[in-house]
Amino acid sequence: MDIESHLKMLQVRKLIDAQIVEIVFNTQAHLARHWHVDVNTIQVKTLLIHLANALGRIKRQHCASPLHKDFQIKIQRAVCFPAVSAMHQEILNLIPFPIPDNEQTYFLANYYSLLLDQPDILKKRHTYCLTRSQSRHTI
Q1: Region of 114 on the Ramachandran plot (φ > 0 left; ψ -120 to 50 alpha; else beta)
Q2: Were both Cys, which of 2, 10, 104, 137 would link to 16 (CB 3.0–4.6 Å)?
Q3: What is the DSSP annotation of the chain?
Q4: Where are the alpha helices (DSSP H) in 18-68?
Q5: SUPFAM superfamilies recorded for this chain (predicted)?
Q6: Residue 127 and residue 139: Cα distance in Å, rounded?
Q7: Rounded to whole angstroms, how far apart are CA atoms 47 and 69?
Q8: Which H helix or E strand runs over 139?
Q9: How far is residue 107's CA from residue 69's CA, in Å, rounded to a whole number?
């Protein structure tokens, strides 16, 4: 099932609303544009559906238990954690309501998994940042 159909199904079941659908598509566009993510992979579709479900749960005043502490530590110690954290903060900025810390642990796990699935993201991001930095110096 494609992402749009899945989101519509969640909306029909009243698990998410139109605002969440918009956030999910804004997140997808942000990942593609700013992080050069291949958003057509199963990993990204899973990430986006997890995001939609989490946002729906939060709006219904429910919250998941935090990610197991051992997994949190593994993610925080990973070489790519600065990128995971940056991606996380950028996506949080697209969400117009507060996200409980417990739910954020799963967001971080999803971004970590994404970077493991698409390791070239870090290379592309690094190259993009260097190119932008160099162009600023030549202006």
Answers
A1: alpha
A2: 10
A3: --HHHHHHHHHHTTSS-HHHHHHHHHHHHHHHHHH---TTSHHHHHHHHHHHHHHHHHHTT--PPPPPHHHHHHHHHSTTHHHHHHHHHHHHTT-SS---HHHHHHHHHHHHHHHHH-THHHHHHHHHHHHHHHHHHT-
A4: 18-35, 42-59
A5: PTS-regulatory domain, PRD (SSF63520)
A6: 19
A7: 20
A8: none
A9: 14
pLDDT tens over the chain, length 139 residues: 799 999 999 999 999 999 999 999 999 999 999 999 999 999 999 999 999 999 999 999 998 998 999 999 999 999 999 999 999 999 999 999 999 999 999 999 999 999 999 999 988 765 444 334 344 444 4
Q: State the Cα–Cα distance between residues 83 and 42, nearest whole angstrom.
A: 21
Residue type at 4 in one-letter notation: E
- Closest to 11 measured CA to CA, from 52, 71, 67: 52
Comparing CA positions, the residue from 128, 92, 96 lying closest to residue 110 is 92
Q: Are 76 and 113 in contact (CB under 8 A)?
A: no
**Both tokens assigned to 48:** 């986006």
pTM of model > 0.70? yes
